[in-house]
């Protein structure tokens, strides 16, 4: 994935195939990408102020912020709160000047936030992700949810 997509990062997933599915939830579209990979996701640091992976996609020129989620979705309020807090930290990094202060060369670059998970998000998480997607789009920040194909997963 790093080489074919031009992403400058060592921790990205190695992808063999990508299939796209659209999920409609209350007129909110979230695009899920399914990937085939033999690489196990690094466990997310659920500390809200920590970005799991920060890179530049050389192919698109986008600033890429990646959030890894290896845990199964449980639909709990606590998990949804953790997800929301983590996304808030990522958006704050992009919009509140932290990124540009640390990396002035990235000023004005388009941005993408990826949530990479081992499991398909449950209904409550999808609803929240859809709402976040719409809010991020208003700020011209792309958001993708990438779900690892469980058929090739090695635990």
Description:
- The radius of gyration is 15 Å and the shape is globular.
- Mean pLDDT is 75; it is low at 1-30 and 34-43.
- The chain has four helices and six strands.
- The chain has 155 residues and is α/β, with parallel strands linked by helices.
- It has helices at 2-5, 77-95, 98-102, 123-138; strands at residues 18-25, 28-35, 53-57, 62-69, 111-117, 141-148.
- The two termini are 21 Å apart.
What's the gist of this structure?
This protein has 155 residues and is of the alpha/beta class. The protein has 4 helices and 6 strands, in the order αββββααβαβ. It has a 6-stranded mixed beta sheet.
The strand line-up of the biggest sheet is 1-2-6-5-4-3
Could you tell me how far the N terminus lies from the C terminus, measured between alpha carbons in angstroms? Answer: 21 Å
Mean pLDDT: 75
Q: What is the H-and-E element order?
A: HEEEEHHEHE
Which value, in Å, is the CA radius of gyration? 15 Å
How are the secondary structure elements laid out?
Elements lengths: L1 H4 L12 E8 L2 E8 L17 E5 L4 E8 L7 H19 L2 H5 L8 E7 L5 H16 L2 E8 L7
Parallel strand pairs: 2-6, 4-5, 5-6
Antiparallel strand pairs: 1-2, 3-4
Helix pairs in contact: 2-4
